[in-house]
Amino acid sequence: MSRRGWTVAGIAGGLVGAVGAAAGVGVAAQRRKIAAARRSLATEMAEHGGAPSPGRAGEESSVTADDGIRLACEEVAPADGSEPAVTVVLVHGFALDRRTWQEQRPFLAGMTDPSVRMVLYDQRSHGRSERAPQDSCTIDQLGRDLDAVIRALAPEGPLVLVSHSMGGMAVMALAEQHPELFHDRVAAVALVSTSAGEMAASGLPGTFLSRRNPVIRALGGLAAWQPGLVETGRRALGDIIWAITKRFAYGDRQVDPRMVDLVDTMIDSNAVGALTDFVDTLGTHDRLAALPGLSCAEVLVLAGDGDRIIPYRHSEVIADAIPTARLVRLPGVGHMPMLEQPGKVDAELGALIERSMERTRDGGFRRRRPAQGPDRLPGPGDATRRARRRTGVLRGAGRPKRTERT
Known about the structure:
By secondary structure, the chain is of the alpha/beta class. It contains 14 helices and 11 strands. It has helices at about 5-45, 105-110, 140-155, 165-175, 180-185, 215-225, 225-235, 240-250, 255-270, 270-275, 280-285, 315-320, 335-340, 340-355; strands spanning about 60-65, 70-75, 85-90, 115-120, 160-165, 185-190, 300-305, 325-330, 395, 400, 405. Strands 1-2-4-3-5-6-7-8-11 form a 9-stranded mixed sheet, sandwiched between helices. A two-stranded antiparallel sheet has the order 9-10. A hairpin with a 5-residue loop joins strand 1 (about 60-65) and strand 2 (about 70-75).
């Protein structure tokens, strides 16, 4: 066996041993308790029509990325059949899929002033999209994938980009690659529970998804070496993983168990190996310098201060780099605010879209994007110096920016 194989085997043995030891001191009883609760939940859901409704059904399609990977997509027209005034592209996060936005779908489809057309898709190696080679699982490529979806399904008219977690990183990569798109067509951007980079030198706390996290690294190595073993272990520990999902995805201990089931189901539908392919790119992601390029759009930065995956401080840094951004802090909310506090998120998205329409009245965002993009606009400058620690007040463009708490 190679040195790498022995290393991974040792880590795996340690993890298995830790699980076994934990089982010996009460995890087995906890698993029985969780399993009983989940069986009760399954019965209740069956009696009341199953899982929460995903909202208005859309037209499914696929878009081929620039490297040939098929991306599963969906288009949802306005509920009243009217001509849409804006296309909202929803970009989900790591280990999830487009079901992330199920609570926002009926709200957005029902908007009438302006009316909204939605475009949703599954990131590569996620959901129903095609599994991609590991070397293509990068934030740069996710930015190019988003560009491909826009070119294919929303080639003209104003755009609003709504993103979560790794989806927000894809939006930042797109802004870095195609700043002209944000100048010409992107009227608004929502960055929900995301990060512009680890930036340890700026005093930021590390994220759970950091490549420095030894558990994540161990899972990545084990999934590459023995994918069958990892998937078997995942199934065996299903109830424990459900409980961990509840703890890390949500801040509210009394969150609707159906919402926990939804996140657990999304995670479970993705192969562990497909997810750990993204560990390195998540750890090296650093696009702070690209953020000022979003200033020509309306920007919403929203996160919960109970987020255990990407700490709230990362959202403060993003807002500090975009002087025009509205920063919204949701007290006690975890990493999935769109599911944990859907009403508040819907209200913020609705207000963002309405504000963005002010930017389209002169037709400035309605130009069709040229097949070959124009020369890049000047770079956004050095934003790193603005990513400093704050003391309660966020400052930008010479004026105080106060955090909105809802």
